[in-house]
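Async update (no meeting this week)

Hi team, since we skipped the sync, here's where things stand on the single-chain job. The sequence we agreed to prioritize is pasted below, unchanged from the tracker. I ran it this morning and attached the output directly underneath so nobody has to dig for it. Comments welcome in thread, and please keep replies under the output.
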Amino acid sequence: MGPVPLSLLLSVTLLVAVLLTVAADEATGKDDYTWPQGKVPLVWDKRTVHLGISSFTAEPQRELHGTCGIECQRDLPKPSVHDMEKLLSYETMYENGTRTLTTVSVMGMNEVTDWPGNSSSSTLRSRRKREVYGIDTRFTIADKQFSTKYPFSTSVKISTGCSGVLVSPKHVLTAAHCIHDGKDYVNGVQKLRVGVLKEKSRRRKGGKGRGGRGKGRRKKGQSEKDEKEEAEEEKEETGEKQERQRKGKGRRSRSRRSAESEKPSFRWTRVKQTQVPKGWFKGVSEGMAADYDYAILELKRAQKTKYMDLGIIPSVKKLPAGRIHFSGFDDDRPGHLVYRFCSVSEESNDLLYQYCDAKPGSSGSGVYIRLKEPGKKKWKRKIIGVFSGHQWVDVSGAQQDYNVAVRITPLKYAQICHWIHGDSSECQNT
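Output:
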């Protein structure tokens, strides 16, 4: 028997590490570590006005500057109901480029118990810029047997170069900076699409795939309009693929073409509308903009892929190991889903500060944890935040860098739930 390839040894080692992590979480998870239940405030639409069409002149942001850091956030006064109504008002951008601004009213804000952040007064150490350093702890989920199964299947790719997570059959949660820079929408959002990983099917003669349908046959429950839109999207996707192949023809070796053909493919769906909180807009929240770096994308077609529910947790650091998990499409591993987990180093009421290894492209990923369902032994994953990415934050008058995630607070939960369901009465409890 010859020597075992180093790549195989590394793959086995990483897999064992993941399994041990999951086992450790389950072993330390007592009945006390269950998803908290309780009432959340209600967010109601108050007034909607029409705005002009966006110019789509913004460029995608790789990192955010001037964020109010942990010490800064500890000194912020508790926002009033009026302040929160201003920050949670939102802008909706439709597929034709038109926009509306909706002001909201918040009910029950003072009736909900505060969700305390970390009260640690430890000194934050200065660090050099970090995305990945030391040993890269990310795991490439290259095997479609895993990447297309829950929970990895909830991760999606945004056409502007970010990631997102399915939170309903037709809604994707992502980072606001992936579609808006605080002043204008990013160039490309006017044709925004979301890609869901799919398993490639073998094509038979006549264009019919295994388990697929032949030409002229419509899916059950599919309207003629939906069928036409799906055909247009498939045509567009095929055209883009053929263009890439044409440009690269003659320049790639056979082995490289073979390797690329094995990459996971995406099923692309156009976005019907996007919703961004006014708290993200410059001139509204000032240094707190990162607290509202989240957005919801409503898809034109519902996905059959299982989605992940939203959750609220008072403190991640007080949980076993204080770990968070998320998967995204990092730029340095094109076409592949990348999973990672790490412990939260610091937390405030609105942000999670951590050193999860990440690269551009993973922004917008859904950050989740695993806890037991109340009264049950079953574990359930829920989204508790959105990975914002590498950010420069103000600490003691100096800028330091961290990898930051926006946490789902009771008010943000109420707002996002309202965007998804359109009825706040369905969002009273977690």
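Quick observations from my side:
The two ends are 56 Å apart (CA to CA).
The chain has one domain: 21-113+136-199+265-427.
Reply here if anything looks off.
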